[in-house]
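Box 3.1 A note on notation
Throughout this textbook, protein chains are presented in two layers. The first layer is the amino acid sequence; the second is a token string describing backbone geometry. Keep the layers aligned when reading.
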Amino acid sequence: MVEIFHTHSDVEAQVVRGLLEAHGLMPVVSSAAPHAIWPVSIGGLAEIRLSVHESEADEARRIIESHRTELPNGRVVRLRDEFESLQQAISYRFRDRGLLEHAMTHTSRANEDVSGGVVDNESMEFLGDAVLGFVIADLLFREFPGWNEGQKSKTKAALVSTATLARQAERLNIGEHMLLGRGEEKTGGRRKQALLADSYEALIAAIYLDGGIEHARAFIAREFGGLISDARDSGGVAGQDYKSALQELLQSRGEAPPDYRLVGTIGPDHDKKFHVEVVVRREPIGEAVGPSKKEAEQEAARAALEKLRIQN
């Protein structure tokens, strides 16, 4: 057997494998994955290798090269970049994109891989949780020096809760980029709050490993700046569930619960936005557009709360 392609990206390896199989070649996939307790290094994922019979090597290389893209400066780019839109959304470009791929790899995907070159993101979730907790605590310490420990602890807990992290992940469309196994895909894994929150924490770990604590801190500050401002305005309520808050306000006034209506969708399927309005007393009093109906409903409820409070 002759090695004809190698990469640190499971996604790219699968693309090349499918390309070759579509042309009647059957590559053998192997990996140099180390057997270690800590499955990720600063250098990224283990190398994945594709090999074919010696008589097919030249044809396989020709097929691969014909599907590459060469830029005017002579640099050859990857066959496919699954995460370009995610990097744009987070305003951070990875030097080692294997770390980003690792962060998006759910255990269900790793369990289905037979090459041994795919590791899941559980260790990165652990690291990301620690980095996030530290940075949020530091931001709250600096932003609210007059708050007592209880106020800061309550706000921190709300900011790093699964519900808040899942909403942050939905806003970035992380669900579209998660690498899931077939079973998890079929059961709606891309919409599960726990998976979204875990992937968000793993993303923070990937940024930390790739760029250091300052880049991780900058990302977290951008992402949570609005929520921290909300905490300042409300005296310590961060990561608020605006839908619940709106319902509680209406109940306290003896009014019926709000009704959420999908007005329509905006944009193509791969970048769809949802336009939602919230109706109170048969009148629309808040509306918003978001990357998911849940996110749009939360923002519409927030707008409705502001309007009702101004009216009173």
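Residues 122-143 form the longest helix (22 residues). The two ends are 77 Å apart (CA to CA).
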